Amino acid sequence: MNPGTKRVPVLIAGGGTCGLAAACELLRRGVPVRVLEAEAGPNQGSRAILLWPLGLAVLRHLGLHDEAVRRGLPLKALVYHLDGGRRLRSEIGEENQALLLPQDRTSALLEEELVRLGGRVERSTRVTDVTAEGDCATVKATGPEGTELIEADWLIGADGIGSTVRQSLGIDFPGSSLPTTYLAAEGCIDGEAERGAVHYFLRSTGPMVYAPLTGGITRLGTPVGPDTPVTPETVQHLLDLRGPGGLQVRELDTLTTFGSQERIAADFRRGRVFLVGDAAHAHSPIGGQGLNLGLQDVHNLAWKLAGVIDGRLDPAVLDTYAVERRHAAELTVANTGRFTRMFTLGPRAARARNAGWRLLEATGVLRRRLIPLLAGWRVQYPAGPLTAAAERGGRRARRVTAPGARTPHWAEQTASPDPAPFRLVTTGPADGPLARAARDLAAQRPGLAVHRHVARPGASFLLLRPDGFVASSGAAPRDLHEAARLLADAAA
Asked: Would the pTM count as exceeding 0.90?
């Protein structure tokens, strides 16, 4: 260590939602952290308002899900309002559970948990430079007591789209700015609008997203021209023009315009440094995917990093972070780009789009395809050291759930505070050959895997990762050889 420097196991640059979640995940696993945040106080305003299942999974893992539900509003449906008073309604359903919770409340919940776990956010402390060489990252930070050098065994850059961490390391952030400017308003708007729903007004007069939240607050967003006056009168005019009618702006707490970008960092990892959240990727806000994507970055990284630090996992498992999360980011950026183009069509194209959507709704395609897409069921990790291939020996394997896919609902109940990274879940006879073989395999890897059995017809197994994804699956004892190999490769 250089004179005048301080050494920490993990340093987190950025005390926003993703940085707070990373700190909580690591502290919960016994890893000391420091969290530096440039701003003097917590971020205000809702920004992101929607947590889909992959974001909620992080709160559930931290034991915060029930409290989040108490502070938020369960999302029941997406409602699409077309010209002529036509409404298309897509029910969310239990399997796609989502929550309307303004981001500042999510952050407050996480910071409360951080303090409970013994941590804190060091505010008004700005990271100004980062170098990453050898067995540490060296961070220069300026705070209320001056400038300090911090050596971190590991550094997590959660410092947003203008990330100093990313820029200091010279990591490219290729992509482009989207041409659309959005007006965002939040406050008290009088009138009747279904709560527990996000309303998309897809009118030929222009689109608008309208979401009633808790506490009598409503959030709306709509594309505007670059010279549009940012005033309550403009909001009222756009509500009358594009909204349902009969709504009256009473008081606005937030009124601003913003643009968006489509970018993915060239590297998600540089030696001892990892990028998460907006520091790693940016995309259109349509569909409410951004915060969920960042929280899943954290969920993917934290268990791997903690396992390497405590000596249970091979350091090579950290190489999977960039591969897996880039795959998820590319999928999300592509999907939100398509949503944005559909959302911002001109009048003639909008009429054609609406006719197509009516057909999709009538045939049930809208309900079957769009909601699961937004809920993250299409996210699937590629084969690698922590995820088996879809085929075995050149043949399509018999799989209960494909490796790389999300954990099915029936297996989520097997989660427990047990610190073992992997769960080996079996179904069928509790004393059958498969269950016995799985029990034996888990016993051979104490501290790395635990066995759980679910009373469910049909003998099968799932090897589940802590971040809610399937590592391997099968239906016979011989298929466990693959799970055994994955555990052996992951072990330190």
From this structure: yes
